[in-house]
Amino acid sequence: MQQQMVQVLQKYFNLIQFFLIPVYALFAWLFLRRGAYNYAENMILSSVISAQMNTISVFSILLFYFIHSPTILAWYGLIAFLILIICFTISFRQFYKISFVKALLYSLLVYICAYVVQLVLLSIVLFAYVMLTR
């Protein structure tokens, strides 16, 4: 059953990332209301950040493909997380014109909240998928 869930996650990973864009935008809009930006503008910002992440991911995956080191591959999750937070921090700093520290804290807050929503939604969807395919 666990392997079946992993296969579903791998198969639909791109869709999962696509559907997370509105979640990131929602939390950015909720936490960073000091600017006069609406939800749609936050959706565009989240889309741009997602595009940045996908571009960086292509290069990092190619790098990891050519470097066949198990040690580096073990660190891939942490490196991907750091790149994500850096992209959010730079984007929030430039878009909202806030300090680096505030942008970093908001980036972490938005990421953590979106991650919790992702876990809850994925759990529900995977549970329903497993129950329906039995």
State mean pLDDT (0 to 100 scale).
85
Shape type: globular
Roughly what fraction of the amino acids lie in strands?
under 5%
Distance between the termini: 10 Å
By secondary-structure content and strand pairing, the structural class works out as mainly alpha
Helix content bin: over 70%
Domain count, please report it. 1
Please state the oligomeric state of the protein chains shown.
Answer: single chain
H-E order: HHHHHH
Q: What are the low-pLDDT stretches, counting only 5+ consecutive residues below 50?
A: none
Index terms:
globular
How would you describe what is shown here?
This protein has 134 residues and is mostly helical. The protein has one domain. It is 87% helix and 0% strand. It has six helices and no strands. The chain has helices at 2-11, 13-31, 39-66, 70-74, 76-96, 100-132. The longest helix has 33 residues, at 100-132. The model has no long low-confidence stretch (mean pLDDT 85).
Summarize, please.
The protein has 6 helices and no strands. The chain has 134 residues and is mainly alpha-helical.
Q: What is the topology?
A:
Layout: H1 2-11, H2 13-31, H3 39-66, H4 70-74, H5 76-96, H6 100-132
